[in-house]
Amino acid sequence: MDRYLVFGHPVRHSKSPFIHTLFARQTQQELEYGLAEPAIDEFAQALRTFFDQGGKGCNVTVPFKEQAFTLVDCLSPRAKRAGAVNTIKLTDDGVLLGDNTDGAGLVADLKSHGVTLADSRILLLGAGGAARGALAPLLAELPSELVIANRTHAKAQQLAAEFCDLGHVTAQTYEQLAGSFDLVINSTSASLQGELPPLAPALIHTDIAIYDMMYGASDTAFISLAKQHGARQTMDGLGMLVEQAAEAFTVWRGIRPGTKQVLRELKRNLGVI
Ligand code: ATR
């Protein structure tokens, strides 16, 4: 049977086996999908061993995405732009192809929530790997402006400069932010430390949509804040998780699974509904 897995550390909490097993059942694909948690300095070896032993493809999550970028034979254009790889496929020619489906997953989830990106004014909080992965797919939707704000302003400036060929993208400090945004996307890892990005609550208005790439069994701190201030629409990253997985599944198997039912099952599994 074709073998797939997700590499991460820690990875025991990963929902990817759950999601991909449902995709496989739905599309009647014969495959198995497992977990691998190599020691931090043993990822390269573990990856080689997996493919030497007949593995067909894998997902890569924190903290190995940047390392995976350097280990594959060939990169998709979107992985090159993201500077990170979350999906690897062994092609029929024996080439390890590195791809990145995170940004596509975000955009697909935003669209499934009915969010309009074209001509919108988007604020992206954070300038780490998650923000980098999201930029090209977001700019491809032709927003009127995309502003990056980050605690370390220099990193936001660097990202804006790197992506300015793809659209109207600028960097501002949190203090400089002004005017009305249509959509705010939180890509920071602040909530992992139980913190909030320093966004002035006055920027959250009743016609704004808020997306937090994080998710949990209950509202993230950022979503709670957005609700308190009357945001029209709030979304967490669970849908992005399922959509990036669907995109990876499509890369591997050439068949696109439906996501709605799987997302519902995942929510049930997490106790969210
Ligand atoms: P990831 O790959 O998940 O994006 P990362 O590369 O470590 O992770 O980036 C984390 C992002 O969250 C960074 O933009 C970080 O800001 P700095 O560049 O200033 O470090 C941001 N971040 C983390 N904790 C934060 C906090 N408490 N407030 C605001 N931003 C925070």
Describe the structure.
With 273 residues, this protein is α/β, with parallel strands linked by helices. The chain is built from ten helices and twelve strands. It has a six-stranded mixed beta sheet with strand order 2-1-3-5-6-4, sandwiched between helices. A six-stranded parallel beta sheet has the order 9-8-7-10-11-12, sandwiched between helices. The longest helix is centred in the C-terminal third of the chain and has 16 residues, at 238-253. The protein is globular. The chain binds 2'-monophosphoadenosine-5'-diphosphate (ATR). Residues 126-131, 150-152, 155, 187-190, 193, 195, 197 line the site of 2'-monophosphoadenosine-5'-diphosphate.
Which helices and strands appear, and what pairs or packs with what?
Blueprint: E1 2-7, H1 16-27, E2 31-36, H2 43-52, E3 57-60, H3 65-71, E4 74-75, H4 77-82, E5 87-90, E6 96-99, H5 102-112, E7 121-125, H6 129-139, E8 145-149, H7 153-163, E9 169-172, E10 183-186, E11 209-212, H8 221-228, E12 233-236, H9 238-253, H10 260-270
Parallel strand pairs: 1-2, 1-3, 4-6, 7-8, 7-10, 8-9, 10-11, 11-12
Antiparallel strand pairs: 3-5, 5-6
Helix pairs in contact: 1-9, 5-6, 5-9
Question: What labels would you give this structure?
Answer:
12 strands, alpha/beta, binds 2'-monophosphoadenosine-5'-diphosphate, 6-stranded parallel beta sheet, 273 residues
